[in-house]
Amino acid sequence: TGYAEDTARRIGRQAWRRHFSANVQAMDAIDRRTLFDQALAPCPVAVFVCSTTGQGAAPDNMRRLWRFLLRKTLPADALQGLQFAVFGLGDSSYKEYNFAAKRLFRRLVQLGAEPVVERGDGDDQHYLGVDGALDPWLTSLWDAVDKICPASKPPLDVDTMPPPMFGVELLGNEVVVPEQPAAVDGAGDGWFDARMAVNERLTTEDHFQDVRRIRFDPLVEAKWEPGDWAVLRPSNSAAFVDEFLHLMAWHGIADQALAVRGAINVPCTTTLRWLATHHLDVTAVPRRSFFEHLWYFSKHKDERERLGELASSAGQDDLLAYCMRPRRTLIEVLADFPNSRVPLEYLLDVFPTIATRAFSISSDAHVVDLTVAVVRYKTLMHVPRTGLCTRWLAHMRLGRLVRLRVERGTMRLPDDPETPVVMVGPGTGIAAFMAFIRRRVQQRAANTHLFFGCRSEHADFLYADRLQAWANAGFLHLYCAFSRDQPQRIYVQQRIAENAAVLWPLLQQGAIVYVSGNARQMPQDVRSAFVDVVEDGGAMDRAMADDYVRGMQRSGRYQEECWF
């Protein structure tokens, strides 16, 4: 989501105002010598901001450093003399809440490093989001750092802005801009070109949710396994780009040459239009840091006062009501503050960048099939909210070239096709399981079970014909829950309970259970249903049954891949 980078930059700005030299970078970009050789750091305090992905995994740009820190050859005093702090970004509704941050903290201590403050645990479930824990943690951090490295002069005022991190210079019309690619993600990082071949709606036209099957044909040989993800970087629509450029009063220079230095995935010579289309997330819901920047640059008395309130610790309730709850976009905020603008040289410091999005691959070879629910919902705002990537995919024309990357997912089929497999995938949770079932059919595997749920058999039974064909051919045991097709609501957890006599013998045979879909309530309800299955089938008490399922989770026999 970019929240870790945004938080790290905020800490970097605070460090700069306290007269420290702060280098903000991805963990995998760290020069490891600065961790192990304290002579290279006059005030050796390393602050790690760490999110958690999947089932407790480290984020992509931390994995190389994490593997290095796990080396058994590292002595117990390898990091002796290093003082550090760790702040985790997570969501307490997940079982592995801030797991990567917790593991990092423990490992640094094991290697002899000394924490200067207790680990901070940001929680999306807090009514103020991560800031609910971050603000008090930062106060504790700077109190501790001041004791380690007493300041020789007082901190700069908050209305003092550090110099821009990136170089941005308008070159004018006299410089010819090279032909601009839609994306400049590095080919060496596994990115490849693919052409859109299918874009079809799976749900009925009268159904509220538009779910689509998207197919891309790779232009090179690409390999993946069932459970892997396709990663894309979307672009903004021309309408949003034009609106952003007009609001910033940059429409007159939008197509002039622009020199950019120090930015990743940006051409050295480009244009404002290209940046607004392919790099800047102009429809993002702006974070607190955006209001801090806009407040600093604003010259309008009333707007500056309001922006200062929204950027302050005391004003987070107001920010929640004004921006977060209604999901007000960056463009809409700019329209609300017409006299407050960001200088061109701070363009890349202030505006968020478009993050990549990952989708489970629904095919198992040759073509990349995605199952995509188009995000569209209403808030207090007049205009419905839409998701950048799903909107981009839904309106994409056949034949268009995009760049993709395949990443290893968190769920994996067993090596032995004789192992029973139980999948629970309501809605678009079925995406990865389509690839699972296809592979199991190829293996002629028995004991493949799918619990699928949706609202209506008529409206949103995704891949109904294919699933029924596999079931009729004996390749799949299919259990469906259509929640709105009868007076009483029926969900997948009820179907699990009804088939406990089938499931308990499968669990005894070593079955692997996979759960995929919306993370709000479904995973907890499904897990509780499996605890019921174990409790009844194994004649256990509730605590023993819960321990049994927990043991399945620890051994990889109960896997979840869920999202909000």
Molecular structure report:
The protein has 564 residues and is an alpha/beta fold. Helix content is 33%, strand content 19%. The chain has 19 helices and 20 strands. It has helices at residues 3-17, 33-36, 63-69, 99-110, 131-148, 238-247, 272-278, 288-297, 301-311, 316-324, 330-336, 347-350, 388-394, 431-442, 464-472, 492-498, 500-508, 522-537, 542-555, and strands spanning 45-51, 83-90, 114-115, 120-123, 167-172, 192-201, 211-218, 229-232, 257-261, 269-270, 357-360, 368-373, 376-377, 385-386, 401-407, 421-424, 448-454, 477-482, 512-518, 558-563. It has a 6-stranded antiparallel beta sheet, covered by helices on one side. Strands 18-17-16-19-20 form a 5-stranded parallel beta sheet, sandwiched between helices. Helix 8 (288-297) runs antiparallel to helix 9 (301-311), helix 16 (492-498) runs parallel beside helix 18 and helix 18 packs across helix 19. The radius of gyration is 26 Å and the shape is globular.
Write the layout of secondary structure elements.
Blueprint: H1 3-17, H2 33-36, E1 45-51, H3 63-69, E2 83-90, H4 99-110, E3 114-115, E4 120-123, H5 131-148, E5 167-172, E6 192-201, E7 211-218, E8 229-232, H6 238-247, E9 257-261, E10 269-270, H7 272-278, H8 288-297, H9 301-311, H10 316-324, H11 330-336, H12 347-350, E11 357-360, E12 368-373, E13 376-377, E14 385-386, H13 388-394, E15 401-407, E16 421-424, H14 431-442, E17 448-454, H15 464-472, E18 477-482, H16 492-498, H17 500-508, E19 512-518, H18 522-537, H19 542-555, E20 558-563
Parallel strand pairs: 1-2, 2-3, 2-4, 16-17, 16-19, 17-18, 19-20
Antiparallel strand pairs: 5-9, 6-7, 6-15, 7-12, 8-11, 8-15, 9-10, 13-14
Helix pairs in contact: 6-7, 8-9, 16-18, 17-18, 18-19
